[in-house]
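Troubleshooting log. The previous structure file for this entry was overwritten by mistake, so regenerating from the original sequence record. Sequence copied from the archived sheet and checked twice against the printout by T.R.
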Amino acid sequence: MLTAEGLVKSYGRRRALDGFDLTVAPGEIVGLIGHNGAGKTTFVEIVTGLVPPDAGRMRIGPHDALRAGRAARRLLGVAPQELALYGSVTVRENLRLLAGLAGLRGRRRDTEIARVLDELHLAAVADRPVGILSGGQRRRVQAATAMVGSPPLLLLDEPTAGADPETRSALLAAVKARAEAGAAVVYTTHYLPELVDLDATLALARDGRVIARGTQEELTRHLPGELRVTFADSTEPELRLPTTDPGADLAALLAAGRTPVSVDIRRPSLDDLYHSLEAAAIEKKKTEPRDVAA
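Regenerated output below.
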């Protein structure tokens, strides 16, 4: 549904994107992660047509998004990181505007609005001005404006930033439902546990490029977890052992005659992956030759 290849974008001497590649299939949720300055927001701006790339190619569905931008972006629903709502009008009126821009009219429009209001737990506040809603409710309205019309590609940029637990739960459930219905989803976040809940594949961005891409299991397979063992008959009551093979390491402890009281195996997490890839990228950058001014 979305294919970006070799996207480059510079602002003066700073390269925000430097060969950015990302493909998202229908029904897939991709968690796009990376520190501030990694290129995530610039990528979002290019996909939405707010800024043009300096180089590269991009397709949304069957369309060349850099040439047939209007047709391509009819397939796209966007929830930007900064709230973009009309505060003086009601939730329903905000959604009517976005539904109209998506080409919905009459009964079909009203049915779609009712659906997304229910999906994001907004029916009770549908006829209240957005400006008087809580922060979490406004976050859900923002997501609703992206989802109304059921676009086949969703771009959600930090949709739960500052959100309360109710908002986070409603948003994650809605995102999963849209992906199960066939939508492709790009989901940027700094809150890594959300990506586990969404069963998202991962794309880690750094310095304007995607440096790792795959499922959590694929990307964490080589990382050590931790074996935590407590003993009743030892001066060392707890042992924490980094391990890539917890079964073998536990067997070695038992063979040595040590009797555990409890055993806990911690699998490598997204945080472990994130820190590992960041450390590897930093080390690689240290070894790259530097440009020397003539």
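The longest strand covers residues 14-24. Archived copy saved in two places this time.
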